Amino acid sequence: MTTAIVLLSAGLDSTVSLALAQEAGMTVLMGLCFDYGQRAAEAEWRQAQQLADHYQIPLQRIELPWLGAITKTALSKDSTEELPEVAIADLDSIIGITLNSAAKVWVPNRNGLLINIAGAFADAEGYTEILTGFNAEEAATFPDNTPQFAEAVSKSLAYSTQAQPKAKSYVQHLNKVEILREAVRLKVPVEKLWSCYTSGTYHCGRCESCSRLRRALTGGGHPEYLSQLFGDQDA
Questions:
Q1: By CB neighbour count within 10 A (0-12 exposed, 13-18 middle, 19+ buried), where does 218 fall?
Q2: What pLDDT is stored for residue 234 in this prediction?
Q3: I want to staple 141 with a disulfide (CB 3.0 to 4.6 A). Which of 102, 121, 151, 201 is the partner?
Q4: Which domains does the chain carry?
C-alpha cells in the first residue's frame, strides 16, 4: 500500500494536491501544519483543522518558534516590515515585482526544513510520499517550489531515511487557475481554504498570495467564492 503524509497549510495548492493524491489512490494517513512564527499561523491552523476533518485525516501542529525568531522578513508576525502588496495586473511581472515580493516574505530554508521534519514522521511510520503544494506559478519566483527542488530533497531523503519517501506535489505543473478548476472538479471545500499571508476572519485581499487566489477564482470561472473568502471587499 502506498501511503503519504501531507504538509497541509490550508492553502489552495496543498489542499488540491491532497485531493488529487487521494483520487490517484494514495492513502494519506497524516497531515502536518506548521507554526514557524508566520503572521497567518492561527488562521492556517484553524482552517487546516477543518480541511483535515473533511478529508478524514489526523492533523498535528508543529511549532518552530526558533525559526520565527531568526526570520527577519515581512512574513514574520514579529517583523516591523510591511507585507508587500502585489496587484493582480502585476503578478506576471517577475523581474522587479514578484521576485522582490518573494524576497520580502522569504523564510530561511523553510521548505527544506518542513520536508525533512515530515521525512522523520515518514521514516517512523513507513510513509512513501510527502505531499506538498508546489506549483508552476510560484516556482517562477520561489526555487523551493520547483520540480528540481522536489527531486533534490527526495534524493537527500533516500540517504537520511530508511523509508526513503519522495516529496511530491500533484499540482506541480499547474498554475493557480488550473488548480482552482481541479478544486471545483474534486469538490474541494474552497470556502475553507486559507491562502492569505495574514490571519483574520477574511483574506486581506492585498498580499501577493491573495492576489493569486483572487485571479484564480475569477480566471477559473468561480467568482462566487470571493465574498466567502474576502468578505465585503469582493461581494
A1: middle
A2: 45
A3: 102
A4: 3-234 (3.40.50.620)
Give residue 96's region: left, alpha or beta (phi > 0; psi -120 to 50): left
Angle between helices 110-125 and 147-160 (to 10 degrees): 40
Residue 44, burial from CB neighbour count under 10 angstroms (0-12, 13-18, 19+):
buried
Entry field: residues in the chain? 235
What average pLDDT does range 13-27 have in this prediction? 98
Least confident of 85-89, 127-131, 184-188: 85-89
Instruction: Note the pLDDT tens digit of each residue in 107-133.
Output: 999 999 999 999 999 999 999 999 999
pLDDT score for 79: 93
- Nearest 5°: the CA angle 155, 12, 219 is 120
CA–CA gap between residue 61 and residue 66 (Å, rounded): 15
How far, in Å, CA of 109 to CA of 17, rounded? Answer: 22
Cα separation, 80 vs 231, whole angstroms:
26
Rounded to whole angstroms, how far apart are CA atoms 230 and 130?
30
Longest dimension (CA), the chain: 51
Residue 30 makes CB contacts below 8 A (sequence gap 6+) with 5, 6, 57, 58, 59, 60, 121, 125, 127
